[in-house]
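Morning run. Coffee first, then this:
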Amino acid sequence: MNYVLLIIGFALLTISADWLINGASGLAKRLNISDLVIGLTIVAFGTSAPELVVNIVAATEGSSDIALTNILGSNIINTLIILGISATIFPVACKQSTYRIEIPLSVLAGLAVLLLGTNFFGLLHLGESHNGVSRIDGIMLLAIFICFCSYTIYQGLHNRDKASTESYEAMPIWKAILLIVFGLAGLIIGGELIVSNAVTIAKSWGISEAVIGVTIVALGTSLPELATSAMAAYKKNTDLAIGNVIGSNIFNVFFVLGISATIRPLPSHENLQIDAAMAAGSSLLLLLFIAISRKRNINRIEGIAMLTIYGIYLAWLLTTL
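And here it is:
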C-alpha cells in the first residue's frame, strides 16, 4: 500500500502543479499581465512547486535527509537524465545568455550546497558544530535567488522584442481560482503522501532516507521538467528544453533549499559530498559539452554519455545500500 500511495502522491503532485500553473496564468492574463511576466514568474515557480512542497513537508516533519537529497537528486536528474533524453531525441541548442549566465549559476548552486553542507564557511553557522545547511545559509541562498530573479526579470523586460513567449489565455476568474485552490490542495496532499510513504519504504528496506530522497523522490518531483523538456525536444523547441532544466536547478537550490533551511536547519547526510559534487559536476559537464561545440549544442552522443554517467552513479548508490 505504501508503494501505491507513493505513486498516487507523485501523480497528484504533477497534476496539481499543472492546475496551479494554468489557474495562476489564466488569472494573471485576465488581469492583463503580460505573457512575458507570467512566464518569468508564475510558470517558472510552478515547475519547482513539487520540490518546494515536498521539501517544506519534509523540513517541518524533521525528515531533513529527504529535504536535502531531493534537491540534489532533482538537479542531477534534471541535467543528466532529462537533458540526456532530450538531446537523444533531438540535439539541444543553447542560447548565449544561458551558456554565459544560467549554466555557470547552476554549477555554483551545486558547489554552494557542497561548501555549505560541509561547513566550509564555518563562521556562517554562528558556532553550530554540526555540518549541514543552517538557517543563516538558507537566508544567504534566498538573497542570491532574489538577485537572480531581479536579473531575469530585467533581462526579460529589456529584451521584450527578442523574447519568444508562449501565449497564455485568460479564463473566467471563478475557474482560475478553483484551479489554484485545488492545485495548492493537491500539492500539499501529494507532498504529504510522498514524504510519509518514502520514509516508511526506506525503513522497510533498511536503507537511509537520503538514498530514497536522491533517487525515487527526486525522480518523482522532476516529472514536470521531464515532460516539458522531452516534449520541447520532440517539437524541436530546444531553447525551452534546456532553459526549463537549468532554471529549475537554480530555483531548487537558491529558492527551495533556501526556504527549507530557513524553516529547519538541514544536517549533512552520509553521501552529501558525492551527491553535491555530482550536482555541480553534471552542470559543469553540460557547460563543457556546449563550450566544445561550434553550434553551442548537446548532440545525441553527448546525451547518451550523460545517461550513462547517471547509470554509473545510480549503480554506485545501490552498492552502498
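The longest strand covers residues 92-93. Good start to the day.
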